[in-house]
Amino acid sequence: MKRFAFLLLVGGVLGMSSAAKAGFDPLGDTFGSGYKIDLIQYSLTEDDTNYYATIVTANAFASPLDLADPQRIGGLFEFDTDNNPDTGYSPHQNTIGHPLAERFGSDFMAAIFGITADDTVTLFDTRDFSSIQVKIAFDLALHSVTLTIPKAAFGNPTTDIYGAVAIGATSINDAMEHREGVTPRSVPEPSSFGLIVLGLGGATFFCRRKKR
Ligand SMILES: [Ca+2]
Ligand SMILES: [Ca+2]
User: Nearest to residue 57, comparing CAs of 128, 145, 119?
Assistant: First the structure.
């Protein structure tokens, strides 16, 4: 079931306390068509129990739960938790031709559009198909989205954690990689999942959205 859910997610997409540093994305670099949400900042922070991945956009967006609003945000958070491009799979940015994340192997992923009524989204471990629900919060006034991930979910990695994100409204229209990752205190099981997932990811989440 978890495997099925994971494949549904991937198929559906085509989809920092300590030394907190923010990564920045240019203003006005959106692509695609329809209403565009311009990503400008990504920060990855941590406290004793959680990692916090926060993105900020230049312009307004609507909650992904507002299914009738054409400005509702969608997209995908991805994490390279072992700083190894050979574990996990190629991030979504690469599949949409965005020149980012060349050294990024996505070990975990969570889709914004997969939000449930309890304000959680599913965080998938792309290496073993396991998953947990993690909290997601939207600040519509500040144009921000924050994903809260319990540290245990990442399996106590020992290297820097990097993030990547791709967002959009009617379609993915901006993306960035954040390589100013947090350095956790404490070992993932490397395994390759790779292109099989992408190969299976035929359908698009945006096609599904348009049908609604
Ligand atoms: Ca941007
Ligand atoms: Ca990796």
Answer: 145
Walk along the chain (212 residues) and give the pLDDT tens digit of each residue: 555 554 444 444 433 344 456 889 999 999 988 999 999 999 998 888 899 999 999 999 999 999 999 999 999 999 999 888 899 988 877 777 665 656 789 999 999 988 998 999 999 999 898 999 999 999 999 999 999 999 899 987 777 888 999 999 988 999 988 876 666 544 333 343 333 333 334 333 444 444 44
Ligand 2 centroid – CA 167 distance (Å): 21
- Residues with a beta carbon under 5 angstroms from ion ligand 2: 80, 82, 84, 87-88, 105, 107
Instruction: State the ligand closest to the CA atom of 39.
Output: 1
How far does residue 60's CA lie from ligand 1's centre (Å)? Answer: 13
Domains along the chain with CATH numbers:
2-211 (2.60.40)
Please state, in angstroms and as integers, the Cα–Cα distance from residue 81 to each residue in 8, 60, 118, 205, following that order. Answer: 22, 30, 26, 25
- Ligand nearest, relative to CA of residue 88: 2
